[in-house]
Amino acid sequence: MKIDGVPYRSVWVDPEDGWSVRIIDQTRLPWAVEILRLTEEKQVAHAIKSMQVRGAPLIGAVAAYGLALALRRDASDAALEGVAAMLGATRPTAINLRWALARMLDALRPVPEARRADAAYAAAAAIAEDDVETCRAIGQHGLPLIEAIAARKTGKPVNILTHCNTGWIATVDFGTALSVIYQAHDAGIPLHVWVDETRPRNQGSALTAWELGKHGVPHTVVADNAGGHLMQHGEVDICLVGTDRVTRQGDVANKIGTYLKALAAHDNNVPFWVALPHSTLDMSVRDGVREIPIEERDAREVLEVTGQSWDGRVQTVRTAAPGSPGLNPAFDVTPARLVTGLITERGRCDATEAGLLGLYPEFLANVAAE
């Protein structure tokens, strides 16, 4: 994707030195585009924890490069296992992180120490390229949903409601749910996106709105609680969201507030579709509400807000009453019964075990073993 006409990905190896890793600091968006240079695994861990990089697919790819950085200094078995465990503990809910590190470990354990660093960079690059192609394919498989709505609304835009950020800066490129939107827009389909602000970190109003604006996609930022009202009045044709983990029965863990959107969509007969790459599937979990660990972040994110003042300064101010405590669960789980369907790189399916196994039959052996 592009920023002001310049193509970018969300993570890349610096071509000048051939080994350090570059990322876009997402805590500085949308007010500034700042590129960070990462040279060691501790910087990578901080970038993931502080949400300088965020989005389930992206943190997996960045963690893979973090392991490669560490192995340049120490390629021993102990370093390989220890750094992977350290990076894997940075965020608990998104399964892509564990998936990427497990893939790295499988690739690197058999490799002699003298060749491990080079092999790690190659394995990390393969994960990144896999994500790019996966997200492109997700957009292609979701596009017919938008085309079908557009065919019924001749001369009127398709109104899409989304939550959080599922675009190219949440992946290596293209995005998941936003990949569908970008490809529909690029195909010339008139559309308009309702962008949930996504409190408390405002990934919608800060990141999704920034992405859509840079790509020329018509959009409007709305308060998180406005979605139900818009659906009641026929202003939403389809909900498109991403996810950080999908269970074998189709439950979906996503940014806090997704569950409430799904309830409103169900009550108003609005299709609720979830876009995901294969790395987001967790077939070891059946009941998402009971089994998925939900990350709880710093309560200050709820009690404070960061924005740009009229004089251009970026400031953080307290919005809650002095002395009031806060609670900050970062995700919630939407039960499969509220999900119209899943959009993957292999196609679309029902949010059911049978639907997922129809697209991913390689999981059948594991399911049968249980």
TrEMBL record:
The active site is at D244 (proton donor). Pfam families: IF-2B. It catalyses: 5-(methylsulfanyl)-alpha-D-ribose 1-phosphate = 5-(methylsulfanyl)-D-ribulose 1-phosphate. Coiled coil: none annotated. Gene3D superfamilies: translation initiation factor eif-2b, domain 1 (1.20.120.420), Translation initiation factor eif-2b, domain 2 (3.40.50.10470). The record marks C164 as: Transition state stabilizer. It is an enzyme of class 5 (isomerase). Its EC number is 5.3.1.23. It comes from the Bacteria. This is Methylthioribose-1-phosphate isomerase. It comes from Teichococcus globiformis.
